[in-house]
Amino acid sequence: MTLEDRPRSIRVVTLYDDVMNVYADRGNVIALRARAAEHGVEADVTPVSLDDALPADADLVLIGGGQDREQRRIAGHLASHGPQLRDWADEGVAMLAICGGYQLFGQSYRDASGAELPGAGVFDVTTVAPGLGWPRCIGDVLAASAVPGVGEVTGFENHGGRTYLGPTARPFAMVEYGYGNNGDDGTEGATRDEAIGTYLHGSLLPKNPALLDHLIAAALRHREGADSAPLARLPAPYADRAHATAAQVARRRSRRVIRSS
Length: 261
Ligand code: GLN
Description:
- This protein is an alpha/beta fold and 261 residues long.
- It has a single domain (8-226, 233-253), classed as Rossmann fold, CATH 3.40.50.
- It contains 6 helices and 14 strands.
- The protein has helices at residues 27-38, 68-80, 82-91, 100-104, 209-224, 237-253; strands at residues 8-15, 41-48, 60-63, 94-98, 108-110, 116-118, 125-128, 137-145, 152-159, 162-165, 173-177, 187-188, 190-192, 195-198.
- The longest helix has 17 residues, at 237-253.
- The model has no long low-confidence stretch (mean pLDDT 95).
- The protein binds glutamine (GLN).
């Protein structure tokens, strides 16, 4: 068997997808399997939920969003996996944490009731929900990703929590339409090595094919090491159309972020 014929696979861990699944975040796993298969890559998915241990290895970790109530259920368990998740992030394991999952991948989240939830500490971000009387950040988002090759990303946000980046966090994207991390500083999400946190639901991956391919490529690099062959450029006509439509909706309906620089 030549190197080219070698079957390629990635080890995917989904965290609490039976608890954390709002706005069809589980659709990210479906899109991932389908797109990986188009690239000739098998996605070997291990669900991890409350009371489960993490597997020994992973190439890609996914977690979706959830309301404060669900976050209170998982926060302690997730935080106990913090050291392993941070080690994986340092090793270049790809990660995608959405909304409530993103908040809990940060240092901490003070929820709308004032409860202080511990975070897994993957991202140097802190989130505070100002309280029930405050408006939530809701709507369609269009943002320019800072991750090379990913370009413009689009999705739907709905969060009370405001997230602030610490000194070592880098934003995942800069908002063009919508709120992003806090509605103030123009940042959206955070990155650490190959880990990405973001407020964008949607599902996100079916309509952001460049991000989906980026995550698959990063997972393959972690799995295969330095000689990992780059992904072929495959067309994604339906995903491209979904992306264009969602971007158009965000431009039409959401507030535009005006930047001075
Ligand atoms: N409970 C969090 C908030 O409202 C996250 C909500 C979500 O994941 N959609 O800020």
